[in-house]
Design a protein that fits this description.
The protein folds into 2 domains: 247 residues, no CATH class; 91 residues, no CATH class. Strand 3 and strand 4 form a beta hairpin. The protein is built from 16 helices and 4 strands. Helix 8 packs across helix 9. It is α+β, with helices and mostly antiparallel strands. The chain has a 4-stranded antiparallel beta sheet with strand order 2-1-3-4. The radius of gyration is 24 Å and the shape is globular.
Length: 384
Amino acid sequence: MVATFARLQYVFLLFHYGNLRTLHRLRIQIPIQYFHFHFNVVRSVSNAKSSYNNHYYLLALISFIMCFFPANRGYSIDANQNSSIQSNSMYSYVRWVIILQLFLVYTYVSIAKLYGDWLDFGIIEILMKDKAHYPMIGSFLQETLVHKSVAIIGIVFDALIVPALLWKPTRKVAFIISILFHLFNSIVFQIGIFPYLALAFTVFFFEPTTIRNIFFKKKQAFTENHFQLPEFKSVLIFGFGIYFIIQLILPIRHHFIKDDVLWTEEGHRLSWRMMLRSRTGIIQFKVVNNETGGSQVVKLEDHLTKKQRRKIAAYPDFIWQFAQYVKEEHTTNSDNVSIYALNSKVSVNGKSYRTFIDPKVDLANEKWDHFGHHKWIYPSNPKD
């Protein structure tokens, strides 16, 4: 994951201090190496499944969006070398694209919380149990009133924070509440840089004069009052239109996939479903040689880290991907094998363990469908 953050930083550095000649000639069209490094970031985040986090996904999206912003016209090296591209202003679309992205994130996060285990505070209780050892606040976090407050405030905050920041009469109050909310998340849930990233984004909601008077008092103010359209207006409208349509559809795709996403996990990722479930599982992988009839049980510790072993039994895509990995290992030895998941059981949000994967299905020869249901996952309702 350190490599992932390194690539993220490199993407930002490439954009801000990138190829002067190419940026100057193409203005907003990005050199191919920017896309190369951006998609390396996405691939790294996707492959490091045991460390997947929606916050990393948001960082990848922001790095992608920045490829289409004229962010090099202020303090970048090429702007210093070429005064003709220097500017102390930005197009308004830059601000609104970021705000719309944040609105989608917060809105879908709020909607996702409207389900049973959040509304009865059960998942909050589970999340807080791991915090009991915290100095000073550990016992306080175990109180039922705290669980109810976290659940209710979480839904309301995520649903209203962007509109409240946009509306001038509530902006300052919303900003103060945002600071308290994100600091609480940072201290209690320790979710990395996201709380501070979210706070940094609030600058887009304030008037430029307010930000300048606080942080950039010596900066020359942009006072010109004229309307100017970007050179590639049609391309920007079309491109961001497609982008936001995808961002609207991805988080709701699980509604079109059979069964409950809380059980199957199908459609969970890239959907802003944050801190909604706790999963644990047990599993064994059996490899059968189709030519000799011999079989063996895979020793997970020979192939996976401790963190990966904790995760693999509870998530169907982890299970399928590991089956493909084992198949490839045997394929290099010219072995024709089948791979089965035995004794697969999963507990979701502290509930009793239930059978998860069909032990009769050869996972080595199954295909993964990113937008469909997999029949080898047992239904959440045993009657189905």
